[in-house]
Every structure is written in structure tokens, then in C-alpha cells.
Specification:
six-stranded mixed sheet; 233 residues; alpha/beta
């Protein structure tokens, strides 16, 4: 019985570790260590970067394509997430034991609105490869759709990266039209503060796999030592 419990617990810990590392572990902060300061998308804001404080400023910043950021405010999670590396989108096939399997990776992951808790958790479970969208409250009590590497919501930040206002995509506009029914937000614009191209999903997956292997070795070693101490008693 003890051996069965030990075996099941080891498999359960391994499964949870694999899911956390391969799908949910945020690694974006690693690639931002060398982003620097300036006016480029995703950098820390430097001289010449302006702040968006009111909804009426958004269109002007879009037309001028000026580098901007936001001073920070209340965040509201949106029922939409997008791949960090859009090159991952598409059909991925592999063969195992002579059986060919394929999986389709979508650029966007949508959820219902209002945002159910279980779908919020599901988006979090795949947060290693997807960034969520958020609404941020501006100084005039209106809201702006923002997109950034959302590890910042875990680590916390007082300064958001540099971004540029752009038109929304079809998926973004559909989501914002739903939210605009009870929120003062424009469905035409999004402030994109994500440094696109900073990460390759294949290299990131390799990094995650390396971390997973190290984690499994450590867990296995700890469990073996614990079992040895229990048997010696």
C-alpha cells in the first residue's frame, strides 16, 4: 500500500510539475533583461515617451504614432489571450511509435464574457505561451485595452513598457465590443506594449524542457532520500 501511494504521489507531482513548467511558467522576464531603456516597443520608457491619461488622447497618439505608456491603474482581465510568438500558430505534427498525431495551435484563445472563473484558470494554465489582454482604467475613469507581457501582473510593476497605439484586430474588436456594453472602452484601439519577436517558441520550449528535467531530477532525489529515511526507521 505504501509503495502504491508513493508511486501515485510521484506521478502526480511529476504531472503537476510538467504542466507548470511546460505550459504555465512565465519566462518573458528573462528576455526583457536586455531590453534596455528608450522609445522602442517593450523597452523601459525613456525620454520622449508620453503618458496616456484620457480616452480623448488615444486617437491623437495613434495618428502621430508616438511612443507612449500608461501611468498604471486598475486592471481588468479580458476574455482573450494571444500567442507570445505568433509563429507558433498552425498545425504541429509528430510521429510516435509509428502513429502520426497533429495538434492545431490557435493564435488566440477566447473565453466567455463575463469571464468565468474556470476559464480564467484555464488561460492561466497556458500562460507560458499566451499573454492575456487587459483593460486599464485611465485618469478620466474610462478604460483602454492594453497588451503586454503579463508576467508583469505576477511580479508587479510601477512602470509599464513603451508601446504604440494601433487598430484592433478582428478578434480584439469582437472581444471589446462585448465589454463596451457595460464599460467605457473604445473597441477601435489597443495599446500594444509587447516586444514582438523577442522570443522564439521553439527555443523557449527547449528552455522549459531543460528546467523540467532539472526539476524532475531534484524531486526524484528528494523523494528517494525521504523514502530511504522512512525505511531506516
Amino acid at each position: 500500500m505504501k509503495h502504491w501511494i508513493h508511486s501515485v504521489s510521484r506521478k502526480l507531482v511529476g504531472a503537476v510539475l510538467a504542466l507548470a513548467v511546460m505550459a504555465a511558467l512565465p519566462t518573458g522576464w528573462l528576455y526583457d533583461l536586455w531590453a534596455g531603456t528608450g522609445t522602442e516597443q517593450g523597452q523601459e520608457s525613456g525620454a520622449g515617451v508620453e503618458l496616456i491619461r484620457r480616452q480623448e488622447d488615444i486617437e491623437a497618439f495613434f495618428l502621430s504614432q508616438a511612443p507612449v505608456t500608461v501611468p498604471g491603474g486598475e486592471l481588468r482581465a479580458c476574455p482573450l489571450a494571444r500567442l507570445r510568438d505568433v509563429g507558433q500558430e498552425g498545425v504541429h505534427a509528430r510521429s510516435r511509435h509509428g502513429v502520426r498525431r497533429s495538434v492545431y495551435v490557435s493564435e488566440y484563445v477566447t473565453a466567455d464574457y463575463p469571464f468565468p472563473t474556470w476559464q480564467r484558470l484555464l488561460q492561466g494554465a497556458i500562460g507560458g505561451f499566451y499573454n492575456r489582454y487587459y483593460l486599464m482604467e485611465l485618469g478620466d475613469n474610462s478604460w483602454l485595452c492594453v497588451y503586454f507581457d503579463d508576467y508583469l501582473t505576477l511580479t508587479g510593476t510601477e512602470e509599464y513598457p513603451v508601446g504604440y497605439v494601433r487598430y484592433t484586430t478582428t478578434e480584439e474588436r469582437r472581444m471589446l465590443n462585448q465589454m463596451a456594453e457595460d464599460t467605457d472602452v473604445s473597441s477601435a484601439y489597443v495599446l500594444d506594449m509587447y516586444r514582438h519577436g523577442k522570443v522564439s517558441w521553439m527555443l523557449d520550449a527547449a528552455l522549459r524542457f531543460s528546467v523540467l528535467v532539472v526539476g524532475i531530477v531534484l524531486v526524484t532525489t528528494v523523494q528517494r532520500n525521504w523514502k530511504g529515511e522512512r525505511d531506516a526507521e
